[in-house]
Design a protein that fits this description.
By secondary structure, the protein is an alpha/beta fold. It has one domain: Alpha-Beta Complex (2-enoyl-CoA Hydratase, Chain A, domain 1). About 50% of the residues lie in helices and about 15% in strands. The protein is built from ten helices and nine strands. A six-stranded mixed beta sheet has the order 1-2-3-5-7-9, sandwiched between helices. It has a three-stranded parallel beta sheet with strand order 4-6-8. β2, α1 and β3 form a beta-alpha-beta unit.
């Protein structure tokens, strides 16, 4: 299949689904489409709740596009590249509707950021997580605020510092990233459907006000995540990162 982002709405529930054949590693255009889809759904009075999911079985999201990463040649391009996930996180944050996450498989880097940014996240036992950025001389600066908000400083530090190790889905649930962990996708989907239907029949005004409460003290994230993207955009040009990427490509 070719890469896509699609939105489908029914009975007050909007499902935003994304896909990329490279284990759902997402180029800038796909990230921009996801952000736009969430923003558009947030403005539609007929939509009461949003589900964010990816296609495929064992990879929820492998982060940003590696091909685009290696093509960065200056700090401005770096800022634009690392702003991709920042824009999706901020779209979720500012959307007046609750966003439910469906994580069927592994999440790396920006994928962990998406799982952390949604308001309520379901996962399968296959949904291990890893923040691998430090291993190539960067760091999860953009997704960091969202991940730390959910996991706390301890959980965020564990993922950030041990950048080459996977943490399993139960670990992620223990630290608050996942609300529930299911044995298979069918069970997870039933749980997602049940909650989405309940929220679709709830008060939109009450949910909007509650979302503001849940996201308090994040009002500066438009600027904060841009600043964080600039840090990564600078570091990606370092000799350390260039050499690390070259070694990775040579494997």
């Amino acid at each position: 299949m070719e890469a896509f982002v699609k939105s489908e709405s029914s009975d007050g529930i909007c499902t935003v689904e994304f896909f990329h054949p490279a284990s759902n590693s997402l180029p800038g255009a796909i990230l921009a489409s996801i952000a736009d889809a969430i923003t558009t759904a947030g403005k539609d009075d007929a939509i009461k709740v949003i589900i964010l999911k990816s296609a495929g079985e064992r990879a929820f999201c492998a982060g940003a596009s590696f091909d685009e990463l290696v093509a960065i040649s200056n700090e401005e391009e770096g800022l634009q590249f690392f702003s991709g996930f920042a824009n999706v996180i901020n779209a979720i944050r500012k959307c007046p509707k609750f966003v439910i996450g469906r994580v069927q498989g592994k999440a790396v880097g920006g994928g962990v950021g998406l799982a952390a940014a949604v308001d309520h996240c379901f996962a399968t036992k296959f949904a291990a997580v890893k923040l691998s950025e430090l291993a190539v001389g960067i760091g999860p600066f953009v997704v960091g605020p969202a991940v730390e908000r959910k996991l706390g400083t301890s959980g965020f530090a564990q993922l950030t510092i041990d950048a080459t190790s996977w943490k399993d889905a139960n670990w992620a649930a223990q630290y608050g990233l996942y609300s529930e962990v299911h044995d298979d996708a069918e069970s997870m989907d039933n749980a997602v459907k049940t909650l989405a239907e309940k929220l679709a029949s709830s008060s939109p005004e009450a949910m909007s006000e509650l979302k503001k409460v849940l996201w308090k003290r994040t009002e500066d994230w438009d600027e904060l995540l841009k600043e964080r993207a600039a840090i990564s955009g600078r570091l990606v040009l370092s000799d350390f990162t260039r050499n690390a990427i070259a070694e990775f490509k040579a494997k």
